Amino acid sequence: MQNSASTTRRSRFTMPDITSLALWAFGLIILIWVIFRTVQTVRSGVYGIDTWAYQFVNGSVQGAMYALIALGYTLVYGILFMINFAHGEIFMIGAYAGYFAIKAFDDAGYLDSNPILTLAVCFFIGMLTPLISAVFLERIAYRPLRRAPRLVPLISAIGASFFLQQAARLLFGIRIKVYPSVPILEGSWQIGGVIIRHLGVFIIVVAIAMMLALQILVQRTKIGRAMRAVAEDKDTAALMGVDVDRVIMITFAIGGALAGAAGVMWGLWFKQVIHTMGFIPGLKAFTAAVLGGIGNVPGAMLGGFFLGLVEAILPTALDISTQLKDVIAFGMLVLVLIFRPTGIMGEVLSEKKA
Amino acid sequence: MNFNHALRVGIRTGIAFAVVAIFIILTGMVESFADRELLLVGTLGTVILIILGILPGLMAGRTVFQQAQSEEKGTSTTSVLLAGSIAGFFVGLSEAILVFLLANANLRTVLVNATQDLYEVLTFGLPTTQAMLLWLVAGTLLGLMGAALQIAPGRARLIILALFSLWILASLLETEFLVFLAVIALLGLFTRWYTGRHLPSGTPFKQAQWRHKVFFGVVLVVWLLVMTVGPAILGDYWARVLLFVGIYTMLGLGLNIVVGFAGLLDLGYVAFFAIGAYTMALLTSAESSLGLEMSFWVALPICMVTAAITGILLGFPVLRMRGDYLAIVTLGFGEIIRILLLSDMAKSITGGPQGVLGTAPPELAGFVFNKPLHYYYLVVLGCLLVAFVSARLVYARIGRAWVAMREDEDVAEAMGVNLVRYKLLAFATGAAFAGISGGIFASFQKAIFPADFTLFVSINVLVLIIIGGIGSIPGVILGAAVLVGLPEVLREVDDYRILAYGALLVIMMIVRPEGLWPAPRRKMELHESDETGPDIAPVSSST
Question: Which pTM value belongs to this model?
Answer without folding.
Answer: 0.85
